[in-house]
Design goal:
A: alpha/beta, six-stranded mixed beta sheet, four-stranded antiparallel beta sheet, 10 helices, globular, B: about 325 residues, alpha/beta, Rossmann fold, eight-stranded mixed beta sheet, 11 helices, about 30% helix
């Protein structure tokens, strides 16, 4: 078992690992411009977990893709550990990509059905490193171990795994190169709640073990409250509220945030006898 | 009072190349007129198969092994197509998870709603309504689901409406035949949380105003708690626990129910420790012997592997199927 969750000391003097300023993205549809992300700024310290919540169409996934440079911003700067991502292209962009990885919402479509689990996990090493042969095998097996799956899984194909197992593979692949920033775009939305609990607990342990920094995108406010230190609420591309998670949930200052929180059906207070 | 819907020892297999999937294993449920029942469970537990079987639209290859379903003194299992036409939409209606896919993109809302209105009149052998009467009926139906801008909506195509509006239209269609029982299969799962709250409000309002009996299926315990007075928890084709929603959510007695609730992060904060249920849901071609939950159950003993637990009363309207129910 892993060590219990510890509070990370966040060094205030260090520059934030991720610093985004004035991020804006326009999409054109039918000749008209649509502003999906409108002047978003955010910072995540090393080891921090920032959540972005919002409803569908709020632009939260677009922020994730912009931060990963999967799409090009219309305006704004993205600094990863002080380095300007938006200025990079070609080889220098490829080199910095190993420090930031993303896990997508739907594990069923994120893995190539014709590749074995071994191939899926080995791919980042083949692209980014010179690790091959026995050492590569050792790494793949170690990663399966990190995500608590048996080594024999490397011979399997994605269709032989459950949704939760596939998402673990996606996480294993994302942390393969020991990135500094992990962007998680709705990583549990396609999963059942008991599996969601496994993945969330696992993400917490992983953060502590590898000192990871998370940008966690979700529409599930309860999950965000559980996992994130700070949270940003987005609505129609704009940031409507930002702050320490508990403070925002306990005392939302924005009316939209309040509406969002009030919309969640409450359960009668549980008396669990664990 | 006799129950409106009674399901007794219902077993359903689906034959596959690898053997029969034992998807429902002895379901017992009873539902009174005006009752709201929630069926909660994770994917693959059989909740949708069960709901669709009530309407005779279960899996095409599904084979009933035993048991019966009775609605308003009608044996549902022996109905022919003509018999089903007197039930579907008239006595029992259903709304589905994804409001995007159940409307025809090529026809206006008014046209599709009118079709349903006319079809019900025809099925009852009544005089078919004129265009003006159809429009009036559509107006009343959309009004019932709290769509106020009738003129705009009735001439819209599905893509011009939001997800929440489309779900309202589907609810209006389901109500067109004035059914006694509405089956709602994950009615809010595809919707945003603020829209979900509106649809849950609407369903509650319909229950109060029309005295509608509702079976709501969801994996979302919160949505179930918002609608259902009673709840049945399903696991791997078995109802493991049922009773009053409030009792079950505050005092779960089956280890699976308790595990499910402990896996939910609490929106109210309070730094709980998330518990997850170890293992994965079983393969239903070769389900575990005895209690189907035993391989994942922290309380399992020898008897659990040998003997299927019989559902037993453990309190006023609280039934649990477990050898070692929690206190």
């Amino acid at each position: 078992m892993l060590s219990p969750v510890t509070t990370l000391s966040i060094d205030a003097a260090r520059p934030p690992l991720l610093s985004v300023t004035g991020l804006t993205k326009d999409f054109s549809s039918g000749g008209r411009l649509f502003r999906a992300v409108d002047d978003i700024s955010l910072q995540i310290p090393q080891g921090g977990v920032l959540g972005i919540v919002g409803e569908s169409g709020s632009g939260k996934s677009t922020v994730a893709r912009l931060v990963m440079r999967l799409i090009e911003p219309t305006a704004g700067t993205i600094l990863l550990d002080g380095e300007d991502l938006s200025a990079k292209s070609g080889e220098s962009l490829r080199l910095i990509r190993r420090h930031m990885q993303i896990v997508f919402q739907n594990p069923h479509s994120a893995l190539n059905p014709r590749h074995t689990i071994h191939d899926a996990i080995a791919e980042p090493f083949l692209v980014q490193t010179t690790i091959r042969g026995l050492e590569l095998e050792r790494r793949v097996e170690a990663l399966l171990d990190i995500v608590s799956l048996p080594k024999a899984f490397k011979y399997r194909y994605p269709h032989e795994l459950s949704g939760g197992q596939k998402q673990r593979i996606c996480i294993a692949r994302a942390v393969a190169l020991e990135p500094r920033l992990l962007v998680l775009d709705e990583p549990t939305s396609a999963l059942d709640v008991s599996v969601q609990a496994q993945i969330i607990t696992f993400l917490q342990e992983l953060r502590d073990r590898l000192n990871l920094t998370y940008l966690f995108i979700s529409h599930n406010l309860a999950v965000v409250r559980y996992l994130c230190d700070r949270v940003i609420v987005m609505n129609q591309g704009k940031m409507v509220e930002e702050g320490v998670t508990d403070a925002i949930f306990a005392n939302p200052s924005n009316s939209y945030t309040r509406q969002l929180i009030d919309s969640i059906p409450r359960l009668p207070q549980r008396n669990l006898v664990y | 009072m006799t129950a409106l819907l009674t399901i007794q020892d219902y077993r359903l297999d689906i034959p596959t190349f690898d053997g029969a999937l034992k998807v429902l294993d002895g379901i017992d449920l009873a539902l009174d007129q005006g009752e709201t029942l929630g069926i909660v469970g994770e994917s693959g537990c059989g909740k949708t198969v069960l709901a669709r079987s009530i309407l005779g639209i279960g899996p095409a290859k599904g084979k009933r092994v035993s048991g019966s379903m009775t609605f308003d003194s009608v044996e549902l299992d022996h109905l022919d197509e003509a018999g089903w036409r007197r039930i579907r939409g008239v006595k029992i209606s259903m709304i589905f998870q994804d409001p995007m896919t159940y409307l025809n993109p090529l026809f206006t809302i008014g046209r599709q709603l009118s079709d349903v209105v006319v079809a019900h009149k025809r099925a009852k052998g009544e005089r078919l309504p004129s265009r003006a009467e159809q429009r009036k009926r559509c107006h009343a139906l959309l009004d019932q689901v709290q769509i106020r801008d009738f003129e705009r909506v009735v001439d819209s195509y599905p893509h011009q409406l939001s997800g929440g509006m489309r779900q309202r239209v589907l609810i209006a269609m389901a109500l067109a035949g004035e059914p006694q029982l509405l089956i709602a299969d994950e009615p809010t799962t595809a919707l945003d949380v603020t829209i979900q709250a509106q649809i849950l409000d609407l369903l509650r309002d319909l229950v109060d105003r029309l005295g509608l009996t509702v079976v709501m299926i969801s994996h979302d315990v919160g949505a179930i708690a918002a609608i259902a007075r009673r709840v049945a928890v399903m696991y791997a084709g078995v109802v493991v626990e049922q009773g009053m929603t409030n009792d079950i959510l505050t005092q779960p007695r089956h280890p699976y129910t308790q595990g499910l609730l402990a896996a939910l992060p609490d929106i109210e904060g309070g730094h709980q420790v998330l518990e997850s249920i170890p293992g994965t849901i079983p393969n239903l071609i070769h389900p575990p012997s005895g209690c189907r939950f035993h391989p994942r159950c922290p309380r399992a003993t020898e008897i659990c592997t040998a003997q299927k637990p019989v559902a037993r009363n453990i309190g006023a309207d609280h039934v649990v199927a477990c050898h070692h129910a929690l206190d």
